[in-house]
Amino acid sequence: MASIRAQLTAAYAATLVITVAAFGGVLYLAHRSEDEHDLERRAAADADLALRIIDQTAAAGDPVTATTDRLVGAIVTPRLRTLLEGLPDYIIVLDSTGRTLYNSFAVRQLGTDDQVALSQLGARLPAESPPQLASLTDRNLLVVVRSEQPRTSAITRVVAGVEVGSRDLAGQDVMATVGLVAPIILVLSVVAAYGISGRAFRPLDTLINEVEAITDGRSLHRRLALAGAGDELVRLGATLNAMIGRLETSFGGLRRFTADASHELKTPLAVLRADLERALRAPTESTDQLVALEEALAETRRMTDLVDSLLTLARADEGRFDILREPVALEPIVREVCETALILGEDGGIVVSLPVLDDATILGDPRWVRQLFMNLVINAIKYTSRGGQIEIALHARADVVAFSVKDSGMGISSGDLAHIFERFWRADQARSRGAERAGRGFGLGLAISQWIAQAHGGTIAVTSRLGRGSLFTVTLPRADAIPKAPELSNS
Amino acid sequence: MKLLVIEDDPTVGQFIKHGLEEQRWGVDLATDGDEGERLAATGAYDLIILDMRLPKKSGLDILRSLRGRGFERPVLVLTAQDAVDAKVQTLRAGADDYVTKPFAFEELLARVEALSRRPRAIASPLLRVADLTLDRDTREVRRDTSPIDLTAKEYMVLEYLMRHAGQVMSRTLITEYAWGYHFDPGTNIVDVVINHLRKKVDAGHAQKLIGTVRGVGYVVKS
Hints:
The complex is a heterodimer. Chain A is α+β, with helices and mostly antiparallel strands. Chain A has three domains: 4-170, Beta-Lactamase (2-Layer Sandwich); 231-317, Helix Hairpins (Orthogonal Bundle), CATH 1.10.287.130; 326-489, Histidine kinase-like ATPase, C-terminal domain (Heat Shock Protein 90, 2-Layer Sandwich), CATH 3.30.565.10. Chain A has twelve helices and 14 strands. Chain A has helices at 4-59, 78-85, 105-108, 112-124, 164-213, 231-281, 287-317, 330-348, 366-382, 414-417, 432-438, 445-455, and strands spanning 65-69, 73-76, 90-94, 100-103, 132-135, 140-147, 157-163, 326-329, 351-357, 361-364, 389-396, 400-407, 459-465, 469-477. Chain A has a five-stranded antiparallel sheet, sandwiched between helices. Chain A has a five-stranded mixed sheet with strand order 9-11-12-14-13. In chain A, a hairpin with a 5-residue loop joins strand 3 and strand 4 (100-103). The longest helix of chain A is centred in the N-terminal third of the chain and has 56 residues, at 4-59. Chain A is rod-shaped and about 165 Å long. Chain B is of the alpha/beta class. Chain B has two domains: 2-116, Response regulator (Rossmann fold); 126-220, Arc Repressor Mutant, subunit A (Orthogonal Bundle), CATH 1.10.10. Chain B is built from eight helices and twelve strands. Chain B has helices at 10-22, 33-41, 59-68, 84-92, 105-116, 152-163, 171-179, 189-202; strands spanning 2-6, 26-30, 47-51, 75-79, 97-100, 126-129, 132-135, 140-143, 146-148, 169-170, 210-213, 217-220. In chain B, strands 2-1-3-4-5 form a five-stranded parallel sheet, sandwiched between helices. At the A-B interface, helix 6, helix 7, helix 8 and helix 9 of A face helix 1, helix 7 and helix 8 of B.
């Protein structure tokens, strides 16, 4: 979807186009009707003037018609003709039979057909009828007819015409002007509108960027800057700030609860554990009792593990990457992890191989790195069935080292792939077979693994195909390849 | 050698006291901060195990006040805080080492032994059960006189069982010793390792040294 800024500009431009078009249309129509009135008046004036000239000539007792050419018949006298030539436009003088006595210069320029058509129209039209439009071959005329009272029997009718097309040019001029200026106005306005809306939206953009920067629990302490924004934006910002504040409070409460609860559980767990260990060491002949104690110890250990994991993740939410920063050689850790995988693989009928084992050192916490690698290997074993294969590798590159675990297990569907690093997430039916073998995991292993990778400035990535297997890759920055950079020690 | 445990929780305190007494340490137990500091100040102890959260006076205060008065013997701190900064704080205040709660006794003992620099006469490098010997210095394992080649994990499991020869060690304890706390493979990994050990240690010998206690764990005894 287009941005509000673009939508606003488009709406503005559309409104402007409609306004200009409507304005131009009204202007054109107004101009046109004004023209028509003008033309009508002019045609009427022409006709009246011609009539008056004929009248005055007749009143002075002068003849109005004369026959100079027998073949042609009677036409207006040369004297009257000279007077009538003074009139512009189209003038035709007819006698009672409709025969033409006089054609003005303009009429004489017309073709014969047009001359005939015009004089016939003039003869046919009733006198004093409203002006009539005559369509000739190449032009339109507005025609007015005046009838002479029978003072002079020779002349009965005067036809005056005014060319419509010639005056219409004025309306076209208006349209041409509008057509020329409108696009320029349009372009300028759209640019201005886009610029202005951009400026108006800039505080909103800033606001969006600031809100976007608040991605998780670690950045909830941030607040939006309110200065410089418009009134509505200040209100929006203040509202958002209040909301972020409430989020921070509840998020903090949840985090504190998790941390406190985990912490408070540790002491009773220590007591429980001490009791169990002591009971296990005490000499006894009852195997049943030992079995119960061992089961209790195993559960206590699992619970301790869960509490530790919760505490670790609660701290991670606070943005505390609580780890040591010391040089850790990865090769021995991978060897140990691989031996463990071999033992587990033997139990599950899985072939484990270690095709690549480079030597690399990172800066970090050996305990966590070991757990990260162990988690991935145990995960691979859990979700690979008998007869499968697991490939473990440690590839050293220029400034990073990649630890990868590839299995031929059941794989992860693309829909699940996005969730596997979430806390307490476990795949449903598809993985039930593996889950059965896996025992009762808490679903925290991969969440912890991701935290460990991130805490070491690295990443964890997974590619998988359902039914074909998965490939987990942990990439960590090498300590023995890069010069000591300050961002490495962000403790 | 004498050792002072300052721990307010009676269960944990007694657990440490009895466990260490079994290892032939002399142990006194103080259950609050004031008593602990008074006893420590007598100078009668070679090593102090100090809990951080105590009634009356906190472990950190005791530690600072002892070090301030020139107390130079090793102090091992017990803490429920496994955050790095909390550990750094205790080390800065003068602790020599720390154990995070909950802990396995084995870990506590190992740290106490390391701190006390006890002569190896007590913690001998050579473990022997019948004709099976394990040298903790050279990591050599022999049955009779023939050497046995073990992987790293096999060695750790055997060493743990031989150190507690005659005692049934539970699967959980063995797993923790060889793989640490945060390890939950979902299968009994120890069983597989024991199988290997049986093939390498007991196969071909009339006397079987590795015994099973079903549902509990394993024992090495003659």
